[in-house]
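Hey, I'm writing a tutorial for new members on how sequence and structure tokens pair up, and I'd like a real worked example in the thread rather than a made-up one. If someone can provide the structure for the chain below, I'll link this post from the tutorial.
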Amino acid sequence: MRFLLVDAILEWAPGKHAKGVKNVSLSEDFFDDHFPLKPIMPGVLIVEGMAQISGLLLEESMRDQGKNVKALMSLMEKVKFRLPVYPGSQVLYTCTILQINEYGGKVSASASVAGEMAAECSLLFSFHEFGNPTQDAIRARVLETWLANAKYVS
């Protein structure tokens, strides 16, 4: 992945929900162009952060059922941006599974900063089997890093 937009997962409940954080730093590449005199995190990258946690949550939920799938985002619904995200902010991503079956899943996702809603949406993913050991190893390493201090909840 070019942009890893999650620093850590705080809560992890496969089949149900997850919470993660992104510490937004002025050194992020995207601030060079967005915008030089007033840096604001691009909305599409906020959605991408929500999608990264949501996709992994759905994938792990299917792994718990014995299926090795990759979740590909297929649809974003009701995307709303409520406030800009600036350098120095900590974004809290919250993702809750609304529906899941062998073909895909739907997640309600939000991003908040200091308790205020920054963005929210519903994300729809389809499941695909790739069978790529290199990709599986990278995914496992990223998930292990993100889950290093996670609180597992039921």
